[in-house]
Write a structure and sequence with these properties.
Length: 254
């Protein structure tokens, strides 16, 4: 299984487990995560979820070797698949806590952004590096990151692809707390247990009201997915991904 499940009382722990690829999302892992989230939604005994990664990474994002082969239609489907995961996280009635244990890059960052609360280990490195590949974020980063951290910080992350460490992420409000790596999961589960002691209906309603306060979501995410997909016909996307796979700097001509 690409997603390992562990129940700790009322807290469901989900562990992304493709360590050989730094937990980069494959279609199979996306399907496993969607199935796990659907099971959470159907289980009234779950009061909170902790999502983390095995090994050195939360998730290194998408598999670039697979993305390099995509055309516009395949890229659109891939963007919508990513949006499906993130929307499933947001639409759960129970809170989802991201325990970001290491690298959270691209789609990994975007999945973390869809979670209700983000906790970081002191080894966390997070970024939206898509512009180096000739594409924009495609799994909600252009929409969720400005809402969480503000326009200026979001533009810096997205337009430069900067790698952000835990202290800077904490100062920007991207994460709520930083813990030593060996204490991160205990802290995340403890937070889930704290939430589990509260009224389930009040927690679910509060989560829904907070999302409503942030305004329209679906139309804006659809616009991002379409822009992401169309960029796959651009020569700079081809050059960016080819350069990445060949381990050389891209030669932009535009």
């Amino acid at each position: 299984m690409a997603v390992v499940r562990e129940r700790r009382g009322a807290v469901q722990v989900l562990v992304l487990d493709r360590q050989e690829a730094l937990n980069a999302f494959s279609p199979e892992q996306i399907d496993d995560l969607l199935a796990a989230l659907a099971d959470v939604a159907a289980d009234p005994g779950v009061r909170a979820v902790v999502l983390t990664g095995a090994g050195r990474a939360f998730s290194a994002g998408a598999d670039i070797s697979r993305m390099a082969e995509m055309d516009v239609d395949a890229a659109r489907a891939f963007a919508m698949q990513g949006h499906g995961v993130c929307t499933a996280i947001e639409d759960l009635s129970v809170p989802v806590i991201a325990a970001i244990n290491g690298f959270a890059l691209g789609g990994g960052c975007e999945v973390a952004l869809a979670c209700d609360i983000r906790l970081a280990s002191d080894a966390m490195k997070i970024s939206q590096p898509e512009v180096a590949l000739g594409i924009p974020p495609g799994w909600g980063g252009s929409q969720r990151l400005p809402r969480i951290c503000g326009e200026g910080f979001a533009k810096r992350m997205i337009l430069t692809g900067a790698m952000i460490g835990p202290d800077e992420a904490l100062a920007a409000g991207l994460v709520s707390a930083v813990h030593p790596a060996d204490h991160l999961m205990d802290a995340a589960v403890a937070m889930g247990e704290e939430i589990a002691q509260k009224s389930p209906s009040a927690v679910a309603l509060s989560k829904r009201l907070i999302h409503a306060a942030l305004g329209e979501r679906d139309h804006l995410l659809a616009a991002e997915a379409e822009a992401f997909a169309r960029q796959f016909a651009h020569p700079e996307r081809i050059e960016g991904m080819t350069a990445f796979l060949e381990k050389r700097p891209p030669a932009w001509v535009g």
